[in-house]
Design brief:
The protein is of the alpha/beta class. The protein contains 14 helices and 13 strands. The strands form 2 sheets. Strands 3-2-1-4-5-6-7 form a 7-stranded parallel sheet. It has a 6-stranded parallel sheet with strand order 10-9-8-11-12-13, sandwiched between helices. Helix 10 packs across helix 13.
Length: about 375
């Protein structure tokens, strides 16, 4: 046990192959480790974080997100029992929850990060999680001295859904490893595939709007040859519906489904794409937009509030219900070299404005502020 440890980090969401919330937790803790010396992290996967100055304590393997709903249940029980006990025993001045899973009840000061409210906004996609977000999350947030939202859009959703005082909900954008993703020579198309491909990275869930993306691709293929690579996993029912749409529209040879891959493999996929697509109906932040931009890849995304907030003027935006407009935007990017170059320049500049160092510094200041805030 580190004698100087004053801040406990609940990183139990990190699994064997971190993605999404797990990647966020890993990147944030690495950044905090550079600016603080009072951290003690709790995780079942310490190797995911690499070498840290912070102390690391093992959480049980049963809490890993790969365990699905049972892993979620075990995490909740572990947080209310073992983690509550170590927080009190070690007299933590603050606990940081990297996702909205924390200790219920008063007495232990917490800062909690909220990434989105998808289970509330799309309850049919999350028949169990919607109840957690409706009945458990508000108790965790009310027990937190400060709540961090990853975008202004998410902040507004939190205030509207849970009635929290606006001054207690802060916006701290997620970071982006722009320097790690950037590759020289991305403007050179000599090494790109003979048939250009579009790229989607994310979950295979209905709110990602992938069925409409497939429709847009079908329209585009009537005018020009191209491919789509979908990198992501999802619930079997949603993935099956997506594959059926591909088969129905005769796009089997034009659409490739790719599963989990390493960060280096993903970077190469971004860099080789003619354009990255994220046509979601809703996002809490939209990190893949910045990752694609950092690779010098043009981006087309939707007009969903968080995506407009993140992309700024560095992407083409299309209303999420407009398959024809999406198809037209894809055609423009394919055939207008000047447009691609301009989106590339703007995207590189936009991605450089986000960093995990800046995110960690801002979260660190909130932790210090929360320690001196009055109990609620």
């Amino acid at each position: 046990m580190r004698r100087s440890a004053r801040v406990g980090i609940n990183a139990s969401i990190v699994g064997e192959r971190p993605s999404g919330l797990g990647v966020y937790s890993v990147k944030l803790l690495r950044g905090l480790d550079e600016v603080r010396e009072d951290l003690l992290a709790y995780t079942s996967e310490p190797k995911a974080f690499g070498s840290l100055r912070a102390g690391v304590c093992l959480a049980p393997a049963a809490v890993r997100p790969e365990r699905g709903r049972w892993g979620h249940l075990v995490r909740l029980l572990w947080l209310q029992s073992s983690f509550r006990l170590v927080a009190r025993t070690n007299r933590f001045k603050m606990v940081l929850n990297t996702v909205p899973e924390g200790i219920l009840g008063a007495g232990i000061p917490q800062v909690t990060i909220v990434h989105d409210l998808v289970p509330i906004l799309f309850p049919d996609e999350f028949p169990r999680q919607q109840y957690y977000f409706r009945f458990v999350v508000p108790r965790i947030l009310r027990a937190s001295r400060i709540v961090i939202a990853v975008s202004e859009s998410t902040r507004r959703d939190i205030i509207r859904a849970y009635g929290l005082p606006a001054e207690r909900v802060r916006v701290i954008h997620s970071g982006c490893d722009a320097s790690a993703y950037f590759c020289n020579g991305l403007h050179d198309t000599s090494g790109r595939p003979a048939v250009p491909y579009f790229l989607y990275v994310g979950n295979l869930l209905p709110h990602k709007n992938l069925l409409r993306l497939i429709d847009a691709l079908s329209l585009l293929r009537r005018r020009q040859s191209c491919r789509l690579i979908i990198r992501g996993d999802g619930k079997p029912f949603h993935a099956r519906a997506l594959r059926e749409r591909v088969e129905t529209l005769g796009l089997t040879d034009a659409v490739t489904f790719a599963g989990y891959m390493s960060e280096n493999e993903l970077r190469g996929l971004y860099a080789g794409a003619t354009c990255f697509l994220l046509p979601s109906l809703y996002e809490g932040f939209g990190l893949p937009v910045l990752e694609a931009m950092a690779c010098g890849t043009p981006v087309i995304t939707s007009t969903a509030p968080a995506l407009r907030e993140v992309a700024g003027d560095a992407a083409l935006t299309v209303p999420p219900d407009d398959a024809i407009g999406l198809s037209e935007a894809m055609y423009q990017v394919l055939n207008d070299r000047e447009l691609r170059d301009e989106l590339c320049r703007r995207g590189l500049k936009r991605a450089a404005a986000y960093s995990w160092e800046r995110t960690a510094e801002q979260v660190s200041r909130v932790l210090d502020e929360a320690q001196s805030a009055p109990k609620r």
